[in-house]
Amino acid sequence: MRAAILLFSLFAAQAALAADEVVLSAKQIESLGIVTERLPDRHGGELAGMPAQVVIPANKAVVISAPLPAAVREVGVGVGDHVARGQVLAHLESPALAEAERGFLEAAAQEQLASSTLARDEQLLKEGIISESRYRAALSQHASASAALAERRQMLKLAGMDDGAIGKLKSAGNLSSQLEITSPIEGVVLERNISAGQRLDAAAPLFKVGKTGSLALEIQVPLSATDDLAVGAPVSIPAFNAQGRLIAIGRSLSGANQTILLRAIILEGSENLRPGQYVEASIATSRVAARQWDIPNSAIARIGGKPVVFVATPKGFRAAAVSVLHEGARHSVVTGSFNGDEMIAVQGVSSLKASLTGVGSGD
Q1: CA nearest to 17, candidates 334, 318, 289, 331
Q2: Residue 222 is part of a domain; what is its CATH number?
Q3: What is the pLDDT of residues 204-217, one digit of tens each?
Q4: Rounded CA separation 172/149 (Å)
Q5: In terms of domains, do 234 and 350 share one?
Q6: Fewer CB within a 10 Å sphere, N or C end of the chain?
Q7: Is 93 exposed, middle or buried (0-12, 13-18, 19+ CB in 10 A)?
């Protein structure tokens, strides 16, 4: 009540109210805490304040799965950890690995025997001791043994063994059930789906690792706003000084909030962002018929249910009607009858509204 009495006493002495104008002196403007800013011009149209999430592009992430049935012995990394290419992520115990190694050694022995038989029969054929059909049989057996060995070798590679480890196994013949899970790329761990002691089936997802050199955005936009959007449009994240471009516009609506999913690639400023981060994005539109302005929400008042902003005049302020195209968390995009160089009130707007309507100081 004291604030209201003070407000109206100030206006009673020096403020004259017109239909849409409040007359105030410079001293009164200062005492009421009214702050003005120049109207920021937005040519060509921009859809601002769109909710978005920073993600790793689909072609920059890999899912690492269990190659064989196993039990988790140890996990060495967590979500958010940076990993190098070839770094061990987890240790597994897999009896199936020992079985695969045994199969490889048996296939290697069969291939060696078939190779020796082929070499002997080839020499006997040259000396005329054996028939050509016997030589061809040995040749077929060698080809079959070589194919079986290649298959067993490939199984070990799928289990995570490299050529050096396979060669060591072939020469030493020592079987092992310990399986190391390594990262195929350098990046950051996005997901971890295992814990120590857990039993896994073959092909169970273990980790998701993404390259952090490039990031993307998934943006939620109302269906009504997509008519003015086009693939290739500039996209920015003003709060984090990042820019990119639109690469895809979805075709289906989300069931929860009836929005369209857009995808954008970040071209500059990705070092200021983190995967999984929620941000507000601005997208340039193709609309050029109406000029638009991105103003703080604190500058907008509603009188009679209609949005207005207060424009500075030589005598004080006048209420100018606007249309809100999009209302964001901190800023809103509006259109109105402006020249583009006006000064508008961004603080103390409730006092101006109270003076104009005479109904108190609340919004």
Answers
A1: 318
A2: 2.40.30.170
A3: 999 999 987 789 99
A4: 17
A5: no
A6: N
A7: middle
